[in-house]
Amino acid sequence: MEIFKKKPDHFPFFFKHILKAALAETDGEFSLHEQTVLLLFLDHCFNSLEVDLIRSQVQQLISLPMWMGLQAARLELELKKTPKLRKFWNLIKKNDEKMDPEAREHVVSSSISLVLTSFVSFHYD
Q1: pLDDT at position 115
Q2: Nearest Cα to 66, choosing from 21, 110, 114, 16?
Q3: In this structure, are residues 49 and 58 in contact, taking their beta carbons and an 8 Å threshold?
């Protein structure tokens, strides 16, 4: 991660390629070990939202629509339990407002489901 702190403009490109590789539908393109490494990297990213560089990429996958799907009371409960989460919620809303409508419509959150489904089916085939 240190390399991306020195050159943060390279991380979005890297992250998108990792995601694309994790979603690769070509059978045999990646071994089980390689798929596991890709999935672990994505898992670490999703668990490192406190890092601005990572959050800006991950938020495009799990942005506002996912949060807006929560009932208002449940959302408020989650935000109250973790004050830091409210800060991220506000950042997500702010960045989502800046996003162009076409990008907002492009639902990438289903990609995560595809990654997991692909991984599990590869593992059990």
Answers
A1: 59
A2: 110
A3: yes
